[in-house]
Amino acid sequence: MKSNYLKLLMFSLTVSISLVSFSQTEDQKQRITSKYNTSLLNQLSIDFGEVFTSQKQSVLDQAKRRNLEISLTLKDGSYAELQRFDEKGTPIYYQTYNVDASRSTRTNHLNINGSTGFNLDGQDMTAHVWDGGHARVTHQEYQTSGNSRVTIMDVASEGLDLNFHAAHVTGTIMASGVVPNAKGMAPQGKVEGYKWNNDKSEATAAAAQGMLVSNHSYGFRPDNLPDYYFGGYIGESRNWDIIHYNAPYYLMVVAAGNDGTSSWNGSPLDPSNPSYDKLTGHSTAKNNLVVASANDANVTDEGELISVSISSFSSQGPTDDLRIKPDITGNGSGVFSTYASGDTAYNTISGTSMASPNVTGSALLLQQHANHLFGNYMRSATLKGLILHTADDAGLEGPDAIFGWGLMNSKRAAESLSQKDNGVIINDLSLLPGQTYTLEVESNDVDALLASISWTDPAGEETTEVNSDEARLVNDLDISLEQTGTEYLPWRLTGVNTNEKGNNTRDPFERVDIENATGTYTITVTHKGNLTNGQQNFTLIVTGLNSEPIVCEAVPPSGITVGGIDSESASLLWDNAPGGEFDFRYREEGTTDWIESSLQTNSINLEGLTELTTYEVQIRTQCLTENTTSDYSEIITFTTEEFVLEYCNSAGETTTDEHIARVRLHTLDNESGAGSGYTDFTNFSTDLIVAESYTITVNPDWSGTIFGEGINVWIDFNLNGDFTDDGELVLSSAPSTSPEVSSTFTVPEGSIEGENLRMRVSMKYNGLPSSCESFVWGEVEDYSVILLPAGTCNVLVPEGEAEQDFCSVPLLDELEVDAATVVWYTQESNGTALAADYLISSGETLYAASLEGECESQDRLSVTVTFGDNEAPVPTQAVLEDVVAQCEVVELVAPTSEDNCDAAEIQGTMSLEFPILESTMVTWEFEDSTGNISIQTQDIIIEDTQNPEILLKENIVLELDEDGNATLSLEDVDGGSIDNCGIATQELSQVDFNCDDYDPENEVVDVTYTVIDTNANQTQVTVSITLLDPTSACTLSSNVFETLKVALYPNPAQQTLFLELGNTPLTIDKVTVFDIQGKLLISLIPNGLNTAIDVSSLSAGNYFLRMSSGKDTMTKRFIKE
């Protein structure tokens, strides 16, 4: 691919002014967030945060039980911290990716005194950093006028946790250059830092406040992940896409990972190319920017790329559905930046962790430049599209799974912004269902003509399938160029290391490249299938165009199209006027007052319309440079649709293990069994009064094991068909095993009165459900609520049991009836209200009336009181601790319970027999004196963590027989070895011995003794065996002693042992005596053929006498008494 673009000559010199006044102000943040559904973002933040909080203690408990480290430093120096366990119990760790950056990406050309004259140093711009810890805010590189430009945002929840990696990342983004080589991309920028533990919740909240760019130089620790995580679009990927879609100005920049030379994926996408398919977690999301790492690039002083190579450690893509990931490459090799060990500490490290902040800081400067030029910031799809569009191609021609779209070229990206409408098109557009967008452009006949579209795509469906090739793209837009019958299509991947130009059905960024372009081309943007959410915003970028100034023609816009019409909104699009802006106005038909807007783009979304109403629309063109204005277009009309209240679907897949058993709110009380996963109970309703407070109670139930359930309840108080507005979440209970959860709420003023409002009750295993979520385990139920005006007498007959049982004579205030306030009588009508201390007789019937304010119900509930007991005992401990034992459990301490009627504690009973040898669950049963029963479970965990203890016999001697053979048995060696849970096997490394094993100079032989217990724990020791040859089977077969007659007497001997040799010319050189352990005790030279040996000093026992003649020996055995 060509890398020569239209060069700027004088134009860039016209913008070299101070940018201090073009930073991200609170007003600009408000302008960004005014386009967001902040209620939805805030609710997402709460949901993510509650999931994190609810899992935190469970993660710590499981890690302790499974003996897993919470945090650790890995062999490559990276830091890892346990975050959670997935649905299959896999521990998920976050891991940092550390193993002349601005020059490689040409960001230095943007800085003050850079070649472009743009003077972009990130003045008052803020990047957000999530990492394994915090930067040192007092470091000299972070200071401006004595104040730190780094703020730690989560000290209250995380404490201060200084971390070298976070410091290095932060410095790479914004170090001021006190030490010149450490200067960051945005040396006057700010950083707000967070620890990574609650990243999704915190990032959602920050996005709702106008955050533009964040850096995440970490990802999943790969060595223990299941294979479907690699390249897979999992829940983590989907969640980040949800955040991006609902905060379209926010861009998450992510390090690709450092597994370029590792292979943790056991099922690579292409088995013949196993070095690919290594991205996991948020790196497989669609809408973020995933960064690979390159070595220092070779570039000219003018910023032209000469050559670049990928860092060997940089993780390769693509995703399983062949999306182009990583997206872009930065410099992460040998980056010098700040450290956390001191205010003047620095270090040089490498990793995609360093490449990511290189890109993050550069992206921040591009946002600053856009705001300077246009008075507003770019949407994240525009920023991402600009970075990918202007990258220097590297590696395979076109995009690939190593470099992505190539090496980031910040200089070219910034210059393209400056050239907007002067040889470069950068337009934010919108596509409606069935619409086709076309634009005719003229190439400059010098540079390659590049045309791209970029969009933030709705979240796709997550998967747990290994190497699923199903496209995760939801809204599939397409771009093509045509000239005289020739169609030019965008790039796409066809394999892990192959690409082509064709129909791209995978990526939310498409680019068409035409080398040697000349003449006029027609750009066409269309879409396949349906458009989720009724339309899709996108950014069109075209470079390589004729740079002659565009002359705006002030004519009324044509091609006005209205789409996406529903009961309260509509979208309009019309033909663009190059170089122009627009005045837009609309009104209800039959009225005279127009609602007017000034627009820079040729589209608008109208909100807050009235159903079944016809509106009139007119648009005119404003040519600001020419100072001319067209007439308004002819009136276009459209009519909104009738409001049809439709709620999103939400359901659980299975209720086999758990379900919603009971829901209570005011007069609504519904008990139900396990349904299909969703049940419509909207025929059940209750009346509530605006501004009054009520308690909602939900009871889960389980068929067996009690699992942790998260429960949310919403009421659509404004009747707009969703549950995302403030105050609509009326109960939120993090996952627990509690049999009942409740919450008190106040009906918001301004809520819709007199209509059936939808109440949604959702219960999800091990997590908090969202209002539109489909999940595996749990259940969803819908009910109705009707609101009455504040001050209304909403009085119904109290509800309660017809009879109530008590252990003893009750007082009136002990009765339980479902009503906020109850007045009691002894007669069905009239009469005098009873006092609270009224003593009730057994069998007496009383009558209850409900009272609210000054209103009392006309009807009364009849309640008959009897004495008795129908309540089961309540366990003293809500949850029993696990019993953890070695080998077996021979006894258990029975838990106790308390009963409403029985005074004494009730001990639990169980049916298991002792000893308990395997891990199991004990069910304790508590029965009171009247037969009421409750149960409680307790886990029994049987372990064996001890190795066997080996005991050996002393002085082990093994004698070879006359044939030179001997056998060693366990009985010869083992002295009573023991194990806490029992010995399974005992093994000797050698049991058979012969002359090959015998050494007369060293008679000790080592044997390995191994003892293995019933749980495979083992102990090994080395046993020393004295191997003897008493018959000289191994020494006399062919030596000089063969015919010698030897007498040794007396045997046994007490004082003197005589050695007598027959008549022989043999010369005996030496006689020695050894004990059975081979210790030399006596050595002498014999006296001829008869020698007396003094053995009186020897202890009683067995001994050996050895005669030596040259190299030959003979050994005899004798006993000392």
Report a brief summary of the structure.
Helix content is 11%, strand content 35%. The chain contains eleven helices and 69 strands.
Describe what this molecule looks like in 3D:
- The chain has seven domains: 15-420, Peptidase S8/S53 domain (Rossmann fold); 550-639, Immunoglobulin-like, CATH 2.60.40; 651-788, Immunoglobulin-like, CATH 2.60.40.2950; 803-862, no CATH class; 874-943, Immunoglobulin-like; 957-1028, no CATH class; 1046-1120, Immunoglobulin-like (Sandwich).
- The longest helix has 28 residues, at 38-65.
- Strand 16 and strand 17 form a beta hairpin.
- The chain is flat, with a radius of gyration of 42 Å.
- It contains eleven helices and 69 strands.
- Residues 1-22 have low confidence and may be disordered.
- Helix 2 runs antiparallel to helix 6 and helix 8 packs parallel to helix 10 (410-418).
- It starts with 25 loop residues before the first helix and ends with a strand.
- The chain is mainly beta and 1121 residues long.
- A seven-stranded parallel beta sheet has the order 7-8-4-9-11-12-15, sandwiched between helices. Strands 36, 39, 41, 42, 44 and 45 form a six-stranded mixed beta sheet that branches.
- Helix content is 11%, strand content 35%.
**Corresponding CATH architecture of the largest domain:** 3-Layer(aba) Sandwich
CATH topology of the largest domain: Rossmann fold
Q: Please tell me the overall pLDDT.
A: 88
- The CATH superfamily of the largest domain is identified as Peptidase S8/S53 domain
Strand order of the largest sheet: 7-8-4-9-11-12-15
Q: Using the CA coordinates, give the radius of gyration.
A: 42 Å
Residue windows where pLDDT falls under 50 for at least 5 positions: 1-22
